[in-house]
């Protein structure tokens, strides 16, 4: 079930990034060809990109698809490789959990301030909440990854 959910996250993150590209292309084309702008194109593409990034981090964290510099890991034996992987997953989980907490505080402040986008007057806190949910999930899957590495049910 978790793998299906992570696959869905990959698809949604990819679609959001595709929307960012499409919105940027449409905005630039309309502006240069017709002198017309898409309302809140910059804000919407930025928020969509933020949501996609946070949910993409969750997927990459669980799958171990993040950027690695593994000089020490390459030189280690199997047991020490496992220790390094578990340590990295726990540190990632702690970092992402802290980031999720801080982002959640930003959601609360944004909702209380009634912050909206400039032209369409869309509530900003909804976008921030979607990104915060991705950060929370990223933290959770980092700890799930560490647990599964220790249990031997996930290979590094």
Describe the structure.
Part of the tripartite ATP-independent periplasmic (TRAP) transport system. Belongs to the TRAP transporter small permease family. With about 160 residues, the chain is an all-alpha fold. The chain has one domain. It is about 80% helix and about 0% strand. The chain contains five helices and no strands. It is elongated.
Radius of gyration: 19 Å
Number of domains: 1
What gross morphology would you assign? elongated
pLDDT averaged over residues: 90
What structural category arises from helix and sheet content? Answer: mainly alpha
SSE pattern, N- to C-terminal? HHHHH
Low-confidence stretches: none
Keywords: Cell inner membrane, Cell membrane, Membrane, Transmembrane, Transmembrane helix, Transport
Membrane topology: Multi-pass membrane protein
Subunit structure: The complex comprises the extracytoplasmic solute receptor protein and the two transmembrane proteins.
InterPro entries: DctQ, TRAP_DctQ
Q: Which structural traits does this protein have?
A:
transmembrane helix, cell inner membrane, 5 helices, 156 residues, transmembrane, transmembrane transporter activity, mainly alpha, DctQ
List the SSEs and their pairings.
Layout: H1 2-34, H2 41-63, H3 71-75, H4 78-112, H5 124-151
Helix pairs in contact: 1-2, 2-5, 4-5
Brief summary of the model shown:
The protein has helices at residues 2-34, 41-63, 71-75, 78-112, 124-151. The protein has 156 residues and is mostly helical.
């Amino acid at each position: 079930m978790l793998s299906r959910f992570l696959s869905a996250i990959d698809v949604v993150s990819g679609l959001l990034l595709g929307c960012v590209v499409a919105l940027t292309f449409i905005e630039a084309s309309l502006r240069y060809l017709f002198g017309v702008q898409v309302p809140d194109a910059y804000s919407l593409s930025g928020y969509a990109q933020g949501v996609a990034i946070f949910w993409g981090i969750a997927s990459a964290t669980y799958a171990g698809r993040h950027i690695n510099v593994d000089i020490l890991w390459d030189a280690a034996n199997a047991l020490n490789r496992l220790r390094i992987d578990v340590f990295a997953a726990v540190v990632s989980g702690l970092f992402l959990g802290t980031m999720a907490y801080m982002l959640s505080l930003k959601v609360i402040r944004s909702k209380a301030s009634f912050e909206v986008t400039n032209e369409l007057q869309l509530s900003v806190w909804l976008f921030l909440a979607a990104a915060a949910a991705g950060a929370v999930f990223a933290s959770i899957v980092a700890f799930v990854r560490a647990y599964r590495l220790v249990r031997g049910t996930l290979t590094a």
